UniProtKB/TrEMBL annotation:
Domain Luciferase: 35-97
Pfam families according to UniProt: Luciferase
Source organism superkingdom: Bacteria
Protein known as: DUF5519 family protein
Phylogenetic placement of the source organism: Bacteria, Bacillati, Actinomycetota, Actinomycetes, Kitasatosporales
Amino acid sequence: MTLASRALAQLATWPDLRQAVPSCGLGQGVSSAQGEIAHFHSDRDVDLRLTDRAVRRFAKDLRGSGAIRIVPGSQWVTLRLDAASDVDLLLTLVSVALQAQQAWPDPADRPSYGCNDQRGAGFVKVDLGAF
C-alpha cells in the first residue's frame, strides 16, 4: 500500500468527507459539503485546497517543510508524500482545510482555478517570504 493510498483510505473514514472525482480529472479526490479538499494525483503527490486566508496564515509555519509546495496565487498547496510523517502532516492539513472552508469561505463570485497539477509546475521548494 502506497502512502497516498493509505492517506486516502484514512480520509475516506472521516464523516465530513466523501470520495469524489477531481475536477481536474486526474487521480482520486475527496470533497466536503463546501467543495473539493484534496486531489491524489500519484502515489506521492497530493494537492490540497485551502482558502486564501488559510494559505496566508500558515505559510510561515510551512516554510521549513520540504514536503510542501505553495504556488503564489493558488488556493491549493501540494504535498509530496515520502514518509509516514508526511501522511500525518496531510491529515492535519485536511483538518485545517475543513475548518478554513467553514470559517473563512471563499467569496461565491470568486473564479474557480484548477489545482496545482493543472498549473504544470514541478515540485520545487519556493521562497515563501512573499506571503
